[in-house]
Design goal:
single chain; about 270 residues; alpha/beta; 5-stranded mixed barrel; two-stranded antiparallel ribbon; 8 helices; 13 strands; about 25% strand
Length: about 270
C-alpha cells in the first residue's frame, strides 16, 4: 500500500493513505544499512500490521524529486517565505543562505515582503563589522570590491531603480562610517523560469552569476586587479567557488567574521 509521510516524531512516521486515513508506522532497519531514513513528504510503500489500530511498517521509500536538509523534508513543491521588513529587523544574509539552499535543492521559492519598505530602504543596516572591515581595506593597498547575485531583478520582485536605491543606501551608510567601496558588480539573472512577473530576457544561465567567476573577471579587467594576489571573502559556497574559479584565494566566513578575516589578510601580507 502506498502513502505519503505527513509527520515524523520519535521514530514513528505518520503515513496518509488516500481513502484509508493515517497509519502509524516504523521504519525497517534496512534504511539504516543504506545510510538513509524516511523524511516528511516521502512517498512510501507500507506493510499493514493491524488495520484496526492503523499500525504498519515502512517497507520502501519511493524515488524523491528533491530533498532538503534543514528542515529535513522531501518532495517539496514550493517554499513560501514571509520576510519581515520592520519587526524583527531583516536578516538578508539568512535569506540569501535560504535561497541558495532552495536553488541547490531545485525547490521554487516564493518570498512575501513589504516591497514599498524595501524600495525606501528605511530598514537597511550594515552588519556590525562591515564598515570597519572596509575602512581597513581602504587604508591598505587592496581594493574593496563587492560582487553580488541579485536574482530579484529577473524574478520581477525589485525594479532596477529599487536596486539602485539599495546600493546607494549601502554606500551612503559606509560613507557615514568613513568607508567606501572601489567597485560594485551585480548579476541580475536567474536560471529558473516560472515566477509570476519575471523578466524573460533575464531568466538565463549566464556567466556572471556566482558560483561562476564572471563578475570577478569583469572587475579585474576594469580595475586592473591581479586576481592571483586577491582574496574573495564570502559566507556561501558559491562565493568560495567563484573566487577559486577566478584564481583568488578564497576565505569562507560566518556572520560577523568579516573584520577578523580582513585583519588576518592584512597582517599576513604586510
Amino acid at each position: 500500500m502506498q502513502g505519503k509521510i505527513v509527520k515524523g516524531i520519535a521514530g514513528f512516521y505518520y503515513v496518509h493513505v488516500v481513502e484509508f486515513g493515517i497509519y502509524e508506522c516504523k521504519a525497517k532497519g534496512i534504511f539504516r544499512k543504506k545510510g538513509t531514513k524516511p523524511l516528511v513528504g516521502d512517498n512510501v510503500e507500507i506493510d499493514i500490521l493491524d488495520e484496526e489500530t492503523k499500525l504498519g511498517n515502512i517497507r520502501e521509500i519511493l524515488p524523491r524529486k528533491n530533498e532538503l536538509i534543514r528542515p529535513a523534508v522531501a518532495n517539496v513543491d514550493q517554499a513560501f517565505v514571509i520576510f519581515a521588513m520592520e519587526n524583527p529587523k531583516p536578516n538578508f544574509m539568512l535569506l540569501d543562505r535560504f535561497l541558495i539552499m532552495m536553488e541547490k535543492g531545485n525547490v521554487p521559492a516564493v518570498i512575501c515582503f513589504n516591497k514599498k519598505d524595501l524600495a525606501k530602504q528605511e530598514e537597511l543596516e550594515l552588519l556590525s563589522d562591515a564598515a570597519e572591515a572596509i575602512k581597513q581595506i581602504n587604508k591598505s593597498d587592496y581594493l574593496a570590491v563587492v560582487v553580488t547575485n541579485q536574482p530579484v531583478i529577473a524574478r520581477g520582485e525589485v525594479t532596477w531603480n529599487e536596486l539602485d536605491e539599495i546600493h546607494n543606501k549601502m554606500e551612503t551608510l559606509l560613507g557615514k562610517a568613513g568607508a567606501y567601496i572601489d567597485g560594485l558588480y551585480f548579476c541580475p539573472h536567474h536560471p529558473h523560469k516560472g515566477y509570476e512577473g519575471e523578466i524573460p530576457e533575464l531568466k538565463i544561465d549566464c556567466d556572471c552569476r556566482k558560483p561562476k567567476p564572471g563578475m570577478l573577471l569583469k572587475a579585474a579587467a576594469e580595475l586592473n586587479i591581479d586576481l592571483n594576489q586577491s582574496f574573495m571573502i564570502g559566507d556561501s559556497d558559491s562565493d568560495i567557488q567563484a573566487g577559486e574559479a577566478a584564481g583568488c584565494k578564497a576565505i569562507k566566513i560566518e556572520e560577523g567574521g568579516l573584520l577578523e578575516a580582513v585583519r588576518g589578510i592584512l597582517n599576513d601580507n604586510n
